[in-house]
Amino acid sequence: AHPDEVAHAVEFLTHAGFVRGAVIPVDGGAGLGH
């Protein structure tokens, strides 16, 4: 993952009102199977 992708995930977590037990893959889309 690129640093900006990680930054977007962290930004989401800091602004989310409620996140619990979530697994957020930051893998540059590799998990999509393309």
UniProtKB/TrEMBL annotation:
Annotated InterPro entries: NAD(P)-bd_dom_sf (IPR036291)
Listed Gene3D superfamilies: NAD(P)-binding Rossmann-like Domain
Superkingdom of the source species: Bacteria
Protein name: Beta-ketoacyl-ACP reductase
Species: Streptomyces spongiae
